[in-house]
Each structure stands twice: as structure tokens, then as C-alpha cells.
Design a protein that fits this description.
Mean pLDDT: 84
Low-confidence stretches: 372-381
Helix content: over 70%
């Protein structure tokens, strides 16, 4: 197959950059999820409570530590803060791609594979940018923490994962890797990070009121989340179960927890160290979204490392593994293409209602968890 001329590749990426810049500028008019971060940081500066049900749908649902992290933005005018957060988001996405490659020691992918890779996550990325969400930062922290395992700085990797968990607790699933591999330094760093992440905000609020603020975080999560389980945009296991089993709606969390336990047991039965050392973090990252009570569509930017791994493994096998190819095709058919509303808004709503994104992510999980013997045999033909 002939290589694509560099001039055509260059022109393509210039056009893509122009389109993304235009989309980013339009997104600044919305940026609805950035507003709660900015407002919470302002409240933190003034020592006010962070959680107020009068805020309506756009409640701040993260820990007080998350509000503290956004204080530098709250010190700027809102318009400037939005632009800086937008540029930071694109930078973090680039860093996530770089760290994902580092995690799997990836060789260079051909241009067509890079195009398919970003097509696979583009709608999730666009949703992230449009809302001004925080998932790029969380993915970056998760990747750094996984890269720290078996290295001198793994204590700090544990701290970084703790920061991520204090923003979105389901990321704690990644801690199972450190526990399974008996990485004491990482586990110690995680525990220290959780402790400091709770104590440091108390320096602003004081012990008594600080406890009240943390209690507000719990109240917001427990009061607002159940009502959103059945939302079409919730593409997690729990959201799917709530819609698929309306008669067993009250048991969705229990059934989902049992599936989560089965998922963890399955990972260890696979013996993740025998598949490929770097595959385990991708499986855990996907699991952290699948088993989040509210796994929103944009949260699936966490599939970037897994999708990159799938292409990397396919390239190693010279695309001879038909099962992996079929699973990847199923991922694109169920999790990517319907997301572009090519068949109209009505079909798109049905697609969300049937949780096809969730089904596609399951296909991606199996696509990267093929036995190591298959990979080795393909690589040594």
C-alpha cells in the first residue's frame, strides 16, 4: 500500500486544526460544566459552602479539594478563565496521547490508524470541549499514576491517583493494580494523598465547618445521582440496567455491583501480567467509567489508551487476528458511528436509550484482552 504524500497529510491536519479551533470558539459560548468549577472556586476563596441545591442542575459534585484546584481560575475574569481552561484542555489531551503511547511503549502508527484512533474518541472529545469538562485532567493524572508503578516516584503516582479519586471516586478501581502487584510505596502515596486531600481544605474552613462542607459533598452525591441513573446520557452499566430492567430498577446498583465483582475476578483470572503488562491499566480505566453510577458520554475519553493499545496490538500482529478486527469493527459500529447522528436525531435518541456506547466499550475491552500467546505467535511469524 502506497504511503500518503506528506503534503496531503499536512493539508489534512491544517484543515482539521481550523475546524477544531472554530468548534472551540463556538464552545466557549456554552461551557456549561466549567461554570460550576469556577463558582465553587469563588466560594472556596470566600470560605462559603460549595454545595447549594439552589444551583439547580449544575451542582458542584466534586470534593472541596477540586474547588481548591480551580482557585487560580477564579482569580481571573470569567471570560479569560474559560479561554485558559479551553487551551489547557487541548494541551492535556495531547499529553494524554503522549503518555498513552509511553504506557504501551508504542511504535509509530501509520496516518490512517491515527485518523481512526481519533475518530474513535472524537465525539467524546468534542462533548468534553463543548462542556468544559474535567476528564482530560483526570485521564492525565491516571496515566501518570500508572506510569509510576515500579519506578522511583511511584509514591507520588499514588498521590496523583488520590487527587483524581477525590474528583471522581470511580478512579479508585486503578488502585487494584497496585494492590495486586503489591506496590507498597504507591499504596502509601494513595493513602497519604487521600488524607491530605481531605485535611488541606480544612485549613481554609476550619475543622468544624470543614466537616460540614465535606458532608455537603456527600449530600449532593446521594441526593442528585439516583434521579440521573435513568438518563439516556448515562451510558454506564448502572444506567443501562436501570433502562433495560425497569421492573428491577431498585436493584440496578446491586446487579451492577455483582457485575463489577465479576469483572474484577475475570481480570485476575486472565492474569493481566501474562497478557501484556500495560493492558491492565486500560482495562481498569474503561471499568472506572463503565461502573461509575453516572458514566456520561463525554467520560469515554478514557478509552483513548485502550483504543491506542488495540491498534498497537493489531499492528504487531500485522492485522491477522480476525477476532480483534471484528471486535474493533463492533466498537466503531456501536460506540462511534451512531454518535454522529448520521441517521437523524430520532435514531440517535434510540441509540442512547439502548446504551450502544456501553456495548461498544465491552467490545473494546475484549479487543485488547486477547491472550498473549496470540500476540506472540503473530509477532514471531
Amino acid at each position: 500500500m502506497k504511503k500518503i504524500p506528506k503534503v496531503i497529510t499536512f493539508i489534512f491536519f491544517i484543515i482539521l486544526a481550523v475546524v477544531l479551533i472554530q468548534y472551540s470558539l463556538l464552545s466557549l459560548r456554552a461551557f456549561s460544566d466549567f461554570a460550576p468549577y469556577y463558582r465553587a472556586a469563588e466560594r472556596f476563596i470566600h470560605g462559603e459552602t460549595l454545595y447549594n441545591f439552589a444551583d439547580g442542575h449544575y451542582l458542584f459534585k466534586y470534593s472541596p479539594l477540586a474547588a481548591m484546584l480551580f482557585v487560580p481560575f477564579a482569580l481571573l475574569p470569567y471570560g479569560i478563565a474559560k479561554v485558559i481552561w479551553l487551551m489547557t484542555s487541548w494541551l492535556l489531551l495531547a499529553l494524554c496521547y503522549s503518555k498513552s503511547r509511553q504506557l504501551i511503549a508504542d511504535s509509530r502508527l501509520p496516518v490512517w490508524a491515527i485518523f481512526l484512533l481519533f475518530l474513535g474518541i472524537s465525539k467524546f472529545v468534542l462533548a468534553e470541549i463543548h462542556l468544559g469538562q474535567i476528564d482530560f485532567l483526570l485521564l492525565f493524572l491516571a496515566l501518570l499514576s500508572m506510569l509510576s508503578l515500579n519506578r522511583k516516584w511511584e509514591f507520588w503516582g499514588g498521590v496523583l491517583l488520590a487527587v483524581g479519586c477525590l474528583i471522581k471516586p470511580p478512579l479508585a478501581l486503578l488502585l487494584l493494580l497496585a494492590l495486586g502487584r503489591k506496590r507498597a510505596a504507591f499504596i502509601g502515596g494513595y493513602m497519604a494523598g487521600i488524607a491530605l486531600g481531605i485535611v488541606i481544605p480544612l485549613l481554609r474552613y476550619g475543622a468544624t465547618y470543614g466537616v460540614h462542607v465535606h458532608r455537603g459533598w456527600w449530600d449532593v452525591l446521594t441526593a442528585s445521582s439516583p434521579g440521573l441513573l435513568s438518563s439516556n446520557v448515562n451510558q454506564s452499566v448502572f444506567g443501562a440496567l436501570t433502562r433495560w430492567l425497569p421492573a428491577a430498577n431498585g436493584y440496578a446498583l446491586i446487579i451492577g455491583a455483582l457485575i463489577l465483582l465479576s469483572y474484577i475476578i475475570w481480570l485476575y483470572r486472565l492474569d493481566i501480567r501474562q497478557i501484556q503488562h500495560s493492558v491492565a491499566p486500560q482495562l481498569m480505566l474503561l471499568g472506572s467509567v463503565l461502573f461509575s453510577p453516572l458514566g456520561w458520554v463525554q467520560n469515554y475519553v478514557f478509552c483513548l489508551p485502550a483504543l491506542l493499545t488495540a491498534f498497537h496490538l493489531g499492528q504487531q500482529e500485522k492485522w491477522t487476528n480476525r477476532t480483534r478486527i471484528l471486535l474493533l469493527a463492533a466498537f466503531y459500529l456501536t460506540a462511534v458511528l451512531p454518535n454522529y447522528e448520521l441517521l437523524g436525531r430520532e435514531i440517535y435518541n434510540i441509540y442512547l436509550g439502548q446504551s450502544w456506547i456501553f456495548i461498544g466499550m465491552v467490545c473494546l475491552i475484549f479487543a485488547i484482552s486477547r491472550p498473549v500467546q496470540t500476540i506472540r505467535s503473530a509477532g514471531h511469524k
